[in-house]
């Protein structure tokens, strides 16, 4: 190790709270620089996972968000037990995140344009879609329909449909899709933002139905993961398969936008659609 790298290594060890290692490029970067780019690695552009509250704070006008349907809370109708009972897993996720479920919906503004805004939080059971998540999305879409407001939703669902709820979870795919179909028949404008990862039931329903579909760079997008697809098809997959850039090249998403530029891009689209 060179003297210069040795000095860096000792600084990292002496001040671990000031540094973070990027999981993509493996470089050590200061948390201050990552934070300044809204949790994006300044070396390679990797987008770190952020919470629903951080999404609201970075996309919407300050103080404009008013949460809707906050009283909805998941139940355990099937009394499902896997490695741990579903009810216990729900309780732990609620304690860890401070959320009742994986979706937050409300009214807000972007550059003074009033919208209905939603976000799924991947910290809560990987952002999976259960009956409460589906119900909140539907109510948000219905609110946007009634008030003739644009609907903007940020998806971060690595868990897809929440199988602890069985068919009650799977039916949310059809339910959210039907609500969006009514919204769009009424002339509604829907911007869908895909983050890493957006998979499974979310991608097979509402997340793919935007009038404009935006993805963050390098986001993993699809239904089944690449390893499952590879094993099923029994052949090698194209380079970059199921990344945001791959889907942009093949026409499945409209834009790939880095997080620091996302607010300005969404504001421009909303202004154009008014």
Task: Explain the overall architecture.
The chain is an alpha/beta fold. The strands form 2 sheets. A 7-stranded mixed beta sheet has the order 3-4-5-6-7-8-9, sandwiched between helices. The protein is built from 10 helices and 9 strands. The model has no long low-confidence stretch (mean pLDDT 91). The N and C termini lie far apart (58 Å). It is globular, with a radius of gyration of 20 Å. α5 (131-147) runs parallel beside α6 (167-185). The chain has 2 domains: 1-48, no CATH class; 49-273, 2-enoyl-CoA Hydratase, Chain A, domain 1.
Name a few traits of the molecule:
274 residues; alpha/beta; 2-enoyl-CoA Hydratase, Chain A, domain 1; 2 domains; seven-stranded mixed sheet; 10 helices; globular
Mean pLDDT reading: 91
Extended strand count: 9
| H/E series | HEEHHEHEEHEHEHEHHEH
Determine the oligomeric state from the structure: single chain
Q: Termini, distance in Å? A: 58 Å
By CATH reckoning, the class of the largest domain would read Alpha Beta
Major pleated sheet = 7 strands, mixed
- Ranges where pLDDT stays below 50 over 5 or more residues in a row are none
Please give the order of strands in the largest beta sheet: 3-4-5-6-7-8-9
Going by CATH, the homologous superfamily of the largest domain would be 2-enoyl-CoA Hydratase, Chain A, domain 1
Strand content: 5-15%
CA radius of gyration? 20 Å
Number of domains: 2
Q: Helix content range of the residues, please?
A: 25-40%
CATH topology of the largest domain, which one?
A: 2-enoyl-CoA Hydratase, Chain A, domain 1
Class based on secondary structure composition and strand pairing = alpha/beta
Globally, the shape reads globular
């Amino acid at each position: 190790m060179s003297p210069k790298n040795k000095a860096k290594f000792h600084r990292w060890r002496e001040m671990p709270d000031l540094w973070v290692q990027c999981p993509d490029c493996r470089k050590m970067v200061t948390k201050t620089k990552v934070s300044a780019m809204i949790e994006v690695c300044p070396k390679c552009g990797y987008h770190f996972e952020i919470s629903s509250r951080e999404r609201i704070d970075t996309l919407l006008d300050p103080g404009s968000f008013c949460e809707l349907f906050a009283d909805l809370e998941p139940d355990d109708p099937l009394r499902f037990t896997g490695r741990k009972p579903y009810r216990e897993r729900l309780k732990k996720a609620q304690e860890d995140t401070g959320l009742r479920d994986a979706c937050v919906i409300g009214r807000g503004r972007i550059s003074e344009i009033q919208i209905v805004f939603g976000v799924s939080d991947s910290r809560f059971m990987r952002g999976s879609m259960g009956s409460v998540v589906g119900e909140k999305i539907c109510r948000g879409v219905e609110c946007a329909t009634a008030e003739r407001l644009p609907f903007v939703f940020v998806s971060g669902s690595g868990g897809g449909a929440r199988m602890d709820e069985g068919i009650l979870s799977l039916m949310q795919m059809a339910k959210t899709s039907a609500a969006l179909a009514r919204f769009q028949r009424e002339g509604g404008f829907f911007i869908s933002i895909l983050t890493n990862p957006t998979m499974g039931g979310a991608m097979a329903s509402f997340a793919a139905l935007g009038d404009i579909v935006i993805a963050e760079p390098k986001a993993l997008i699809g239904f089944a993961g690449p390893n499952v697809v590879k094993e099923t098809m029994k052949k090698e997959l194209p380079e970059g398969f199921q990344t945001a850039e791959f889907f942009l090249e093949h026409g499945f998403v409209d834009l790939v936008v880095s997080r620091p530029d996302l607010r300005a891009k969404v504001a421009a689209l909303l202004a154009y659609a008014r």
